[in-house]
């Protein structure tokens, strides 16, 4: 990035690039605001190079962003009239970051910007901004200084939020203009620098997009994931275990800490039901995309007739609100510690290597015994550790219950609410029924590669939200 | 009424005792005959787990030993537990595992040696040891030469009482006393030094334990344990009868703890073989009602403790505890208050505690 701008600055210093002067480039003269934004980009570029100071450079004067302009929503276009929405609508294929295809980068960035705008409920913001501007223009505004202050503050906040996004848009459009220019002029150096700038912007925009996707109330929380086998006995229990493993691997890949809270194993294979705790930033924000019924179609490994079977597993995701601490605070006075298998007078009368201890937590009736250690003290310490972890599990389950009020728990998930189908036979495919996102490699998905599904669903949610505005 | 130390004679330590305090178990000394109870030669050696692994055996040798030892345990267990409440087969089998654990080098360092295992005793010795366990009912702790007590591994040997699990709690009782860390404590009848070491490890600058016993063997073992836990500057071992060696700190003690012999003399012959036939009578026999020493301690506590000082005594349980508690709160009520009975984990009122007014 810095390299690009360095080059850029050097040119403008000794020999200003032609496009800055050329009337062919309407971006500089179409409107004040776009000039402003463009100049800001330049100013930023100077800063990048000289570390804050731009003395010695021909200074581009930066007109103030005029607040009275409801054109805080400026009509941003490239030289040949493309808007960000138009770029997105072109559906240019989005390739990997390493591919040197500027259209692919531009499409990816446009998509991210659209998503960020959706998340912000852009259309609502425009309406609100107009209202605020109108209010600000009222002559009697300052008759009520308190409300005037509030209005002007909200107006300012709104404006700066929107300005930031417009800044991204402007940046993208400028890069595209530069790219096109470079191609026209056969300026390979400029083309290469523009490409680099696009890639870097693409990464940036992706991060911003994610932030926007995960801005729900509890998104940043850790969570519990519960999986329950549907009807169909061993078949479904095996499937439920596969689903649970998929989440364990997914969470581990993402760097979350996974703890098994409870597990009810099936009689022959798999699980009837299990709960894991997934600790980490935004665990809930991501995992909430998985709520619903997951359906598997395969040749059953349990069917000697090798017939195709369909199995179901329901998934619930519960945010862990509050400090997320699931350490149960044990009160000493709530404990009863007993010598296990003790009889007779004890004390000096008896010599025994048996020093097992049982600790009962009176309020819950939960107990733990340890007899493997060679001293009573150590047996007690081990039993205490076991008791603590049992009570911690109870605490986790309690919190899960408590938190379930904020989400749909397993019991609310109707078995009709299928969200995804995993087909292993006769073809291989995983398809999300909500977003139509699909992948033809079920193994990788079952191995925890879920991000594609999750991110697609999260942006789908935004679409739905926006449709409701 | 004035309370006086209940002893009449105070003699300086005979030289023979003084020298025995400095003797170490690991150095076999032929002149050890000065000790009152002659010890079998095996007791001159350090406990199993501290001996160098100078012997070898194959894994299958050890496997054979285990099989043999377990068959002995299975055959004798039911008889032993039925006869006097001794260990049953399950317990004996766990002891075999621990015996092997102490006699072999830890698994981690075993690897690479292949089929060969390094042993701390000769294989034949292992057989002899287990035979003695079953046939003579020699306590397991004397066989391996140690007792795991609290988070400590204490050296024990014939001639000193094997610390009991119940007694672990005495240390916890002390830890609850405000300001105990810097106090002067006395452990009367320290035996292996268990309580003293337990307290000593919690003490801070200025804190000290005077650990006393009448038995030179006990003091010898206690010294080993004090040294092993590097508490020489916190624990002072003194020989003598009860308060006798504590004259210089009379009225200065922050606390006084003791697990004195409390078994009624008439019960001694019927004790479980491991106890009655192997542990020192001096550590067990409490006189006709078992309370000779306890009463003696009660009488001496008032002048030994400073004002606000704490005491904790272990007793034979329920009746003895109640008797002692009554004595301290009624007869000696002018001197003590806040007398409590504390149960052990089997629910027996095992300890009496209180404070000097
Ligand atoms: C039951 S043992 C307790 C040993 C150790 N405190 C423990 O809890 O493991 C009693 C101890 O009191 C000692 N003892 C017996 N009579 C004594 C006396 N007159 N003065 C001092 N100690 C005595 C015995 O030698 C023995 O070590």
UniProtKB/TrEMBL annotation, chain A:
GO terms for cellular component: cytoplasm. GO terms for molecular function: translation release factor activity, codon specific. The keyword Protein biosynthesis applies. Keywords: Protein biosynthesis. It comes from the Eukaryota. Transmembrane segments: none annotated. Residues 341-357 form the Prokaryotic-type class I peptide chain release factors domain. InterPro entries: PCRF, Pep_chain_release_fac_I, Pep_chain_release_fac_I_sf, PrfB. PROSITE patterns: RF_PROK_I. Belongs to the prokaryotic/mitochondrial release factor family. NCBIfam families: prfB. PANTHER family: CLASS I PEPTIDE CHAIN RELEASE FACTOR, PEPTIDE CHAIN RELEASE FACTOR 2. This is Prokaryotic-type class I peptide chain release factors domain-containing protein.
Automatic annotation (TrEMBL), chain B:
InterPro entries: DNA_methylase_N6_adenine_CS (IPR002052), HemK-like (IPR004556), RF_glutamine_MTase_cyano (IPR052663), SAM-dependent_MTases_sf (IPR029063), Small_mtfrase_dom (IPR007848). Residues 181-262 form the Methyltransferase small domain. Pfam families: MTS. PROSITE patterns: N6_MTASE (PS00092). Keywords: Methyltransferase, S-adenosyl-L-methionine, Transferase. GO terms for molecular function: nucleic acid binding; protein methyltransferase activity; S-adenosylmethionine-dependent methyltransferase activity. GO terms for biological process: methylation. This is Methyltransferase small domain-containing protein.
């Amino acid at each position: 990035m810095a390299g690009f701008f360095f080059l850029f600055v050097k040119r403008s210093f000794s020999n200003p690039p032609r496009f800055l002067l050329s009337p062919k480039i309407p971006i500089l003269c179409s409107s004040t605001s776009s000039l402003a934004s463009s100049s800001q980009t330049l100013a930023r570029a100077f800063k990048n190079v000289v570390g804050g100071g731009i003395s010695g450079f021909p200074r581009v004067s930066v007109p103030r962003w005029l607040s009275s302009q409801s054109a805080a929503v400026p009509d941003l276009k490239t030289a040949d009239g493309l808007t960000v929405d138009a770029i997105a609508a072109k559906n240019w294929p989005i390739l990997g970051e390493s591919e040197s295809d500027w259209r692919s980068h531009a499409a990816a960035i446009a998509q991210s910007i659209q998503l960020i705008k959706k998340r912000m409920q852009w259309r609502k913001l425009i309406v609100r901004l107009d209202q605020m501007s109108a209010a600000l223009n009222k002559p009697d505004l300052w008759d009520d200084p308190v409300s005037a202050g509030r209005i002007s503050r909200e107006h300012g906040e709104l404006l700066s939020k929107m300005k930031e996004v417009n800044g991204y848009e402007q940046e993208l459009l400028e890069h595209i203009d530069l790219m096109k220019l470079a191609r026209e002029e056969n300026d390979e150096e400029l083309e290469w620098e523009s490409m680099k700038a696009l890639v870097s912007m693409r990464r940036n925009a992706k991060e911003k997009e994610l932030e926007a996707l995960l801005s729900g109330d509890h998104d940043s929380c850790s969570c519990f994931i519960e999986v329950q086998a549907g009807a169909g006995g061993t078949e479904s229990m095996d499937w439920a275990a596969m689903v649970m493993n998929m989440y364990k691997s997914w969470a581990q890949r993402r760097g979350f800490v996974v703890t098994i809270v409870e597990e009810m194993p099936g009689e022959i294979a798999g699980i009837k039901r299990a709960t894991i705790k997934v600790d980490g930033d935004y665990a809930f924000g991501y995992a909430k995309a998985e709520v619903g019924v997951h359906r598997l179609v395969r040749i059953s490994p349990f069917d000697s007739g090798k017939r195709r079977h369909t199995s179901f597993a329901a998934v619930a995701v519960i945010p862990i609100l509050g400090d997320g601490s699931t350490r149960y605070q044990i009160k000493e006075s709530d404990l009863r510690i007993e010598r296990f298998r003790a009889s007779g007078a004890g004390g000096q009368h008896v010599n025994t290597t048996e020093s097992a201890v049982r600790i009962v937590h009176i309020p819950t009736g939960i107990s733990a015994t340890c007899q493997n250690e060679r001293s009573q003290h150590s047996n007690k310490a081990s039993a205490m550790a076991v008791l603590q972890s049992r009570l911690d599990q109870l605490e986790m389950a309690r919190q899960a219950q408590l938190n379930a009020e904020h989400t749909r728990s397993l019991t609310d998930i109707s078995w009709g609410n299928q969200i995804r189908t995993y087909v292993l036979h006769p073809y291989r495919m995983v398809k999300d029924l909500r977003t139509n996102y699909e992948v033809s490699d079920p193994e990788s998905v079952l191995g925890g590669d879920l991000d594609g599904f999750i991110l697609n669903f999260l942006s789908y949610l935004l679409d739905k939200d926006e449709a409701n505005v | 009424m004035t309370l006086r130390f209940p002893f009449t004679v105070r003699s300086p330590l005979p030289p023979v005792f003084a020298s025995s305090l400095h003797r170490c178990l690991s150095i076999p000394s032929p002149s050890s005959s000065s000790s009152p109870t002659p010890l079998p030669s095996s007791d001159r050696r350090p406990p199993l787990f501290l001996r160098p692994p100078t012997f070898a055996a194959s894994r299958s040798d050890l496997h054979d030993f285990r099989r043999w030892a377990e068959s002995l345990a299975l055959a004798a267990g039911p008889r032993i537990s039925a006869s006097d409440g001794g260990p049953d087969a399950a317990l004996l089998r766990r002891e075999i595992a621990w015996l092997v654990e102490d006699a072999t080098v830890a698994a981690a360092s075993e690897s690479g040696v292949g089929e060969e295992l390094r042993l701390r005793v000769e294989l034949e010795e292992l057989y002899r040891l287990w035979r003695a366990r079953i046939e003579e009912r020699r306590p397991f702790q004397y066989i391996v030469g140690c007792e795991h007590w609290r988070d400590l591994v204490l050296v024990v040997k014939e001639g000193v009482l094997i610390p009991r699990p119940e007694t672990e709690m005495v240390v916890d009782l002390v830890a609850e006393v405000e300001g105990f860390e810097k106090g002067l404590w006395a452990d009367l009848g320290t035996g292996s030094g268990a309580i003293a070491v337990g307290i000593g490890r919690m003490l801070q600058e200025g804190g000290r334990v005077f650990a006393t016993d009448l038995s030179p063997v006990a003091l010898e073992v206690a010294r080993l344990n004090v040294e092993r836990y590097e508490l020489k500057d916190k624990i002072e071992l003194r020989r003598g009868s009860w308060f006798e060696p504590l004259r210089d700190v009379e009225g200065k003690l922050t606390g006084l703890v003791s697990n004195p012999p409390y078994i009624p003399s008439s019960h001694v012959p019927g004790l479980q073989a491991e106890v009655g036939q192997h542990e020192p009578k001096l550590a067990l026999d409490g006189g006709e009602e078992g309370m000779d020493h306890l009463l003696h301690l009660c009488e001496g506590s008032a002048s030994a403790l400073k004002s606000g000082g704490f005491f904790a005594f272990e007793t034979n349980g329920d009746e003895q505890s109640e008797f002692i508690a009554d004595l301290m709160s009624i007869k000696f009520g002018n001197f003590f208050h806040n007398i409590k009975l504390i149960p052990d984990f089997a629910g027996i009122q095992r300890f009496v505690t209180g404070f000097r007014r």
